[in-house]
Amino acid sequence: MDLQIKGKNAIMAGGSAGLGRATAERLAEAGVNLFITARREERLRKAAEEISAKYNTTVTPVVADSSTEDGRQALFDACPNPDILSITIKPPAPNGSFLKVTPEMWRDSVETALIGPVEIMRHYIPGMIDRGWGRIVNIATFSAKNPMIWRLMSGPARSALINYTASVSREIARHGVTINNLLPGIFRTEGMDESFDAYVDAFGLERDREVAMTHFLENNKIPAGFMGESEDLAPMAALLCSPLSRFIVGQNIVIDGGQHSSIF
Ligand SMILES: NC(=O)c1ccc[n+]([C@@H]2O[C@H](COP(=O)([O-])OP(=O)(O)OC[C@H]3O[C@@H](n4cnc5c(N)ncnc54)[C@H](OP(=O)(O)O)[C@@H]3O)[C@@H](O)[C@H]2O)c1
Description:
Layout: E1 9-13, H1 18-29, E2 33-38, H2 41-55, E3 59-63, H3 69-78, E4 84-87, H4 103-131, E5 134-139, H5 155-172, E6 177-184, H6 190-194, H7 196-202, H8 209-219, H9 234-240, E7 252-255
Parallel strand pairs: 1-2, 1-4, 2-3, 4-5, 5-6, 6-7
Helix pairs in contact: 1-2, 1-9, 4-5
The structure holds NADP nicotinamide-adenine-dinucleotide phosphate.
Residues 13-20, 37-40, 43, 64-67, 88-91, 112, 139, 141, 154, 184, 186-187, 189-192 line the site of NADP nicotinamide-adenine-dinucleotide phosphate.
């Protein structure tokens, strides 16, 4: 399928690994002029080089933390006029008991998972409206919709994010600019691997991968029978970045192998 985005400027904020990297690859494959950001420089530069070589397209790495003003400014300077904006961030690690969640932890979660994406969107939306076209896709989490007691640092701030985009997307849709969100379930990614120790600590488990993984899968039953790979999300992200998705506005699409059961 031709996504009809060849030559457009596209940002994948959080594009050096996991779901963001896979999305960046689908966009590069479709021929965009790509900008990818991340906090860690070495992995970011390597990803940019690999994607550029694989798809023969321009990929500009921008070291930028989306949760800070300086980081966001670095992105705005590097890519002033994107047509396509996809954003993901890594929220703070799984919490332990809810009684131990402090105001400082909440502030960290909100800065990262809510204010970061909101401020990037707020900066770019006016230009997209002026140019009469734009696509915004947030890669958030299914715990925005399905609360999980160990993901208090991720779910609540993302519930606020999808509340915000539900309103803003309807305000701007008539200008040809859409916002939609993807809500991933359990995916095998570098980020998931890095969070494993925090998960073990949150549940007071043994530091044994097999024991911890068994506990994890018992607590996360996936009807599809397997954990997602990043490629199981990226095609949907790319479709939402395309003119083909012009009638999809303000939606939250859960991609979780059927883990959470609901009709709507
Ligand atoms: N994997 C899962 O099972 C799962 C489940 C539910 C929800 N999610 C959500 O899906 C999203 C992607 O997860 P993932 O597993 O793909 O994570 P990942 O493998 O850690 O990849 C995250 C990417 O974003 C970058 N990044 C993280 N925080 C950033 C920040 N503040 N500013 C700029 N770049 C940042 C990372 O690079 P640097 O670290 O170098 O910045 C990396 O390139 C996250 O929002 C996560 O909460 C994932």
